Recover the amino acids of this structure.
């Protein structure tokens, strides 16, 4: 079990790096956890990008409303 924990920790550390290294993970449980982590990371990035876009739109609307006064 300790070897699985170490493998998972290394794989997650690699996942969090900007330029992850290739890590050989053979345990199906660890592979599935990494797949879920990758999906969550990508979803978080997309949500962040959408939020930034919406924020920019709101600032533009506010600026236009203030200039109209």
């Amino acid at each position: 079990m300790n070897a699985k924990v170490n493998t998972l920790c290394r794989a997650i550390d690699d996942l969090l790096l900007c330029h992850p290294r290739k890590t050989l993970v053979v345990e199906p449980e660890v592979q599935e956890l990494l797949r879920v982590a990758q999906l969550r990371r990508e979803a978080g990035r997309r949500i962040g990008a959408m939020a930034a876009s919406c924020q920019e739109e709101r600032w533009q609307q506010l600026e236009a409303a203030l200039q109209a006064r």
